[in-house]
Design brief:
With 451 residues, the protein is α/β, with parallel strands linked by helices. It is 40% helix and 15% strand. An 8-stranded parallel β-barrel has the order 1-2-3-4-5-7-11-14, surrounded by 5 helices. Helix 6 (126-142) packs parallel to helix 8 and helix 8 (179-203) packs across helix 11. The structure holds 6-O-phosphono-beta-D-glucopyranose (BG6). 6-O-phosphono-beta-D-glucopyranose binds next to loops.
Length: 451
């Protein structure tokens, strides 16, 4: 990719930013219940002001998501909700008007809540057809506005027994883990994702479809071969398994043994295997926040991360939520991914969650600037070393509701939003110091001046 085409951008998701608005026809989605307040940062009503402010950064791309329950409120409705369709059309048109390339995720940790109740969410194969109905609707409607699409955000979450999986119907509603059902639900998502690729390649050849993975650097704690093997095991399960299915088109060999050991017997038809093989993605997208250090002797998770925790890495600092901060890990994973898959890579999330404070109407966040500067620096080194990275979209453009905590106080944005977890605040936006830093940085990289 030419330097001038590189997609410097920012990222958000629908359910973490939009909020509900009376009369918008939106159904509840499975993640709406996770947020501590219902209006979120009200991107739904303020998208115009927000996008114009973000455009002033000089960004070339904006990674967002469509909320399925805005388009099909119950998931199995026969006709779409025009209000929801028109809303995203306005957002996407404004992006184009501002010279911004939208990158759209079809499912960012949500599905219509009704489907999780009536069908058990993704555990039911019937959701595949419903997801395709929704996808066809948005592909058809936004075909002239969107080129880059992502299927499921951080699909590899389902490999663990954590987090928001009950909400997606990947885990049982009582949160009790059932690996058999969890991996079958994940398989249904793989099939849905492959059918999205098939649809795009057949009907919309201008589209580029990517998978989206939460990707980690995984290190052995010591050079003890037992630690090395443990790191390799975790790497296979967390990083490579889902990526292999969607990029190489088949389940990797080591999953057979894993499923046997866990007593899991997946129902996969020969037609589905063929579908997966014939419909692999055009590019790879990842979120990168942290690295994971593992020990064969001690599997207690002392540190956290957005997907899994691990043992303490004495060479790294940690953020307030006990996630390691590891810029070099980003360079490591970019090489690792590119070597294995040889596909263009788009970074669609990377950023620092922190408690920010307003002082005299300003937000000074040198910690975030340092995080971003160091991570971007390592990405640029990886690119100079030959890795084909096509975009960097930091998380997040504006403050929004954190996925793991449901709290707005864990802030990632370049733009501060006056809101607390009790729902109090004016929703006023304030550019943080990191906003001006990124603006300046993009200008240096691209030579484009902002007005
Ligand atoms: C990723 C998700 O896991 O990390 C985002 O795709 C999420 O939705 C981000 O917000 C940061 O995680 P958290 O839990 O701190 O919000």
């Amino acid at each position: 990719m030419k330097k001038k085409d590189f997609m410097w951008g920012v990222s958000i998701s629908a359910h973490q930013s939009e909020g509900f608005a009376p009369g918008d026809g939106k159904g509840r989605n499975s993640s709406d219940f996770a947020s501590k307040n219902t209006r979120s940062v009200d991107f739904y009503n303020r998208y115009e002001e927000d996008l114009r402010r973000l455009a002033k950064l000089g960004i070339r791309s904006f990674r967002m998501s469509v909320d399925w329950s805005r388009i099909y409120p119950n998931g199995d409705d026969l006709t779409p909700n025009e209000t929801g369709l028109a809303y995203y059309e306005r957002v996407l048109k404004l992006c184009r008007e501002l010279g911004i390339e939208p990158i759209v995720t079809l499912s960012h940790f949500e599905m219509p809540y009704r489907l999780t109740q009536s069908r058990g969410g993704w555990r039911d194969a019937g959701c595949i057809d419903l997801f395709l109905r929704y996808t066809e609707t948005v592909f058809q409607r936004y075909q002239g506005l969107v080129k880059y699409w992502l299927t499921f955000n951080e699909i590899n979450f389902a490999v663990t027994d954590k987090s928001n999986l009950p909400a997606l119907g990947i885990q049982n509603p009582d949160g009790k883990d059932d690996p058999q059902k969890r991996f079958q639900a994940l398989h249904h998502q793989f099939v849905a994702a492959a059918r999205v690729v098939e649809l795009a390649h057949r009907k919309y050849p201008a589209f580029e479809i990517g998978c989206m993975l939460s990707y980690f650097a995984i290190y052995p704690k010591t050079c003890d071969p037992a630690d090395i093997l443990e790191a390799q095991r975790k790497q296979g399960l967390l990083n490579h398994f889902c990526a292999d299915v969607m990029i190489r088109g088949h389940y990797p060999y080591f999953m057979d043994a894993y499923f046997r050991q866990q007593g899991i017997r997946l129902q996969i038809t020969p037609q589905e295997r063929q579908l997966l093989a014939e419909n692999t993605v055009d590019f790879v997208s990842i979120s990168y926040y942290t690295s994971n250090t593992v020990s064969a002797r001690d599997r207690t998770e002392v540190c956290s991360g957005n997907l899994v925790g691990g043992v303490i890495n004495p060479y790294l600092q940690r953020n307030d939520w006990n996630w390691h901060i590891d810029p070099q890990g980003l360079r490591f994973v970019l090489h690792e991914l590119y070597e294995r898959y040889e596909k263009p890579i788009m970074i669609v999330e990377n950023g620092l969650g922190a408690i920010d404070r307003v002082e005299d109407g300003k937000v000074h966040d040198p910690y975030r600037i340092q995080y971003l500067r160091e991570h971007i620096g390592q990405m640029l080194l990886a690119m100079a070393e030959g890795v084909d990275v096509i975009g960097y979209n930091l998380w997040s453009g504006i403050d929004l509701v954190s996925a793991s905590t449901g709290s707005v106080e864990k802030r990632y944005g370049l733009v501060y939003v006056d809101l607390d977890d009790g729902g109090n605040g004016t929703l006023e936006r304030i550019e943080k110091d990191s906003y001006y830093w990124y603006q300046q940085f993009i200008q240096e990289q691209t030579g484009r001046r902002q007005v």
